[in-house]
Amino acid sequence: MCGFETEQNLIENEVLLLNENDKHLSDNIIYVSKPNNSLSPFLAIYLVAIISLFILMIALSFAKIGAWPVLIYAFAVIIGLSLAFQHAFKHAGDSEKLSIQDGVLHLEIKELEDFRRYEVNAYWAELITKYFPDGDCRHLAIRSRGREIKIGRHLNANNLNQVAIQLKAKLRELK
């Protein structure tokens, strides 16, 4: 991915935040974000198998001494773990892209097979931010003509703060 990527960005999520030095990429794109996909499907299956084997060994040792109901809970944990990994891989292709072009704010959101594109007049756009008591951004949205669109689904609090600052500056330039 282009742009600046810190180790924190790579750990938390895959995100591209553009700064003033990234003019060669695009003057219009503010950010592109995707969820962290650092675990391949093969490694995920391997990890679930190892954890399941460990859980089953413990559950079988309890069943051997007469505590057979532990097996039910062990299978429930294994099923839950498998479903969690399945959910994560279903959303591996999700993304979000925010750009401003010709006074129009464009937001493209891809979730599973659903693709939504929003276009908002940047002059009428209002940035809505809500913060935790420690100052980290917890909610970022764009409001225009009574409609509010949440942005930054794949960003951590630090990156949400950066996007909020960049977007406020861009919107201020256009007004």
Describe this structure as you would to a colleague.
The chain is of the alpha+beta class and 175 residues long. The chain has helices at 7-12, 41-64, 69-90, 157-174; strands at 14-17, 29-34, 95-101, 104-111, 114-121, 126-131, 137-144, 147-151. The strands form two sheets. It has a five-stranded antiparallel β-sheet with strand order 1-2-3-4-5. A three-stranded antiparallel β-sheet has the order 6-7-8, covered by helices on one side. Strand 3 and strand 4 (104-111) form a beta hairpin. Helix 2 (41-64) runs antiparallel to helix 3. The radius of gyration is 22 Å and the shape is elongated. The chain starts with 6 loop residues before the first helix and ends with a helix.
Pick out its properties.
175 residues; disordered N terminus; 2 domains; 8 strands; alpha+beta; PH-domain like; elongated; three-stranded antiparallel β-sheet; five-stranded antiparallel β-sheet
How are the SSEs placed, and which strands pair?
Elements: H1 7-12, E1 14-17, E2 29-34, H2 41-64, H3 69-90, E3 95-101, E4 104-111, E5 114-121, E6 126-131, E7 137-144, E8 147-151, H4 157-174
Antiparallel strand pairs: 1-2, 2-3, 3-4, 4-5, 6-7, 7-8
The parts where pLDDT drops under 50 for at least 5 residues are 1-26
Provide the domain count: 2
Give the amount of beta strand, in percent. Answer: 25-35%
Total beta-strand segments: 8
Please give the radius of gyration in angstroms.
22 Å
From the N-terminal CA to the C-terminal CA, the straight-line distance is: 31 Å
Total number of helices? 4
- Element-level helix/strand string: HEEHHEEEEEEH
